[in-house]
Amino acid sequence: MVVVVLEEMRIRALGVIDDAVVELSPGFTAVTGETGAGKTMVVTSLGLLLGGRADAALVRIGAKAAVVEGRITVDGRSAVAVRAEEAGAELDDGALLISRTVSAEGRSRAHVGGRSVPVGLLGELADDLVAVHGQTDQQGLLRPARQRQALDRYAGAAVAGPLEKYGAAYRRLRAVAAELDELTTRARERAQEADLLRFGLEEIAAAEPLPGEDTELAAEAERLGHAEALASAATAAHAALAGHPEDPEGVDAASLVAGAHRALEGVRSHDPKLAALADRIAEVGILMSDVAGELAGYADDLDADPRRLAVVEERRAALSHLTRKYGQGIADVLAWAEQGAARLAELDGDDDRIGELTAERDALRAELGELAQALSDARTEAAARFADAVTAELASLAMPHARVTFAISQSEAAEETAGIEVGGRAVLFGPHGADEVELLLAPHPGAPPRPIAKGASGGELSRVMLAVEVVFAGSDPVPTYLFDEVDQGVGGKAAVEVGRRLAKLARTAQVVVVTHLPQVAAFADRHLVVEKTNDGAVTRSGVKAMEGEDRVRELSRMLAGQEDSELARAHAEELLETARATR
């Protein structure tokens, strides 16, 4: 058997508690004390160790921080030990040390096994460590959703398997329905978008723009617009280089360069340096001849036709119309056309997509109907066993004639509401199925079963919740149970039976109970009292273990408000004897 036991807690500067050590029994520990003494701080301390919300108001006035430390005996095979070691924690001689610090400014820090960890890790450990139940849990049990959760938890894999499949199908249905709704409700907008895209694509296709065409046409327009000046300049440059045919006596650059070359050529053999200069002059002559030839060809080929200029300007105007609407340049226009075609194909495929989604939605609804029926069947079977087990526990809690049952039903879907078919009926459904689960209580023979929210008194509700937890302890146990005054509204014989049942639960788990009932405290293996004293300056609370005569005095106080009352002492001793006989 894997053993996990919360051995003790050290509480410092938390609320009314200045410094106290709470040593817990591995079995049943009862925590008692006067109203306002600080019993709630014990529960709060454990809550902080379990990753509960930190509140700067919890820090004792004048203190810099509140600190809660816990020592947990763990088996290396336990889930608590494994998860802690995964986070880098180390065990101390088979024990796991946990601490939580809350500063007066509200900052919170957590340590597990000597390693600083996120506070969230404490919450993860708590899931496998402690089940906490208080008066708020009683109120929670009144809600149908919590009752369904309790039933599902008890049913275990029989419900968990179908519920997991149902949840996946339900989430997919939600996604499909959302996409389908968007497609259908935005049909007009999407049709308008498609029309605009088609118009733009047709306009671009009609113009047939080519990549870089706008740049080329701009250069051609510039050339055609200055054709005469360009031709005149080319002709003049050609004449300067090669001479004018109508002026044979004119001096030109080519003739001058040729004369320079001839002058050097005759003496080049006498000096290599001069020969090199002659070669360079020859190269200049060749280059000038080439340039002169190109100038002549340029002037001859230059197109000065004004009709071509008109054609170019007209084409540029057509391209400019496109760039004003679809991009800064033709490259941007072509990119818009490519993206627009892809988007249009997507929009044109909406009708097909709507058909696909509609078919998937219908298939998912049919699948959900089958899974919801499987869930309902599993819950109905588990409900009978759960109700019988809780009823049996109530018999041990001074409610021998009480009967607990579950009502499992489904609400029919209205015509305008999309439902799923379960058992031949269209019913409403949600993320957990189509079932509405309600816990019913018949407190005595002849009384009709009524929802516990309406038919159970405070004391009955406390015992129902305790019975439910005891049943859970047998099917899905945790190492430690903390009950915070769940016995409120219970008294007399019923209180004795509550104490007896908690003692029985403590045989297989650690049980910590904060109580005001002596009948419950008498059954504890360890009885702790939270005491508050006033030294005139600082109010302090301490936690003491009650044994022997001290325990009799405390039970007497709880019974009669008088520690020295002979009748109360006799009653206290009788309670202790009854508890010892039970154990």
Automatic annotation (TrEMBL):
Query: GO: which molecular function terms?
Result: ATP binding
Chain coiled-coil ranges: 354-381
- Which UniProt keywords are given for this protein, alphabetically ordered? ATP-binding, Coiled coil, DNA damage, DNA repair, Nucleotide-binding
Q: Which Gene3D superfamilies match?
A: P-loop containing nucleotide triphosphate hydrolases (3.40.50.300)
Task: Give any Pfam family that matches.
Answer: SMC_N
Q: Which InterPro entries match?
A: DNA_recomb/repair_RecN (IPR004604), P-loop_NTPase (IPR027417), RecF/RecN/SMC_N (IPR003395)
List, alphabetically, the GO terms of the cellular component aspect: bacterial nucleoid
Q: Which GO terms describe its biological process?
A: DNA recombination; DNA repair; SOS response
Function of the protein = May be involved in recombinational repair of damaged DNA.
Similarity annotation: Belongs to the RecN family.
What protein name applies here?
DNA repair protein RecN
UniProt source species:
Streptomyces bingchenggensis (strain BCW-1)
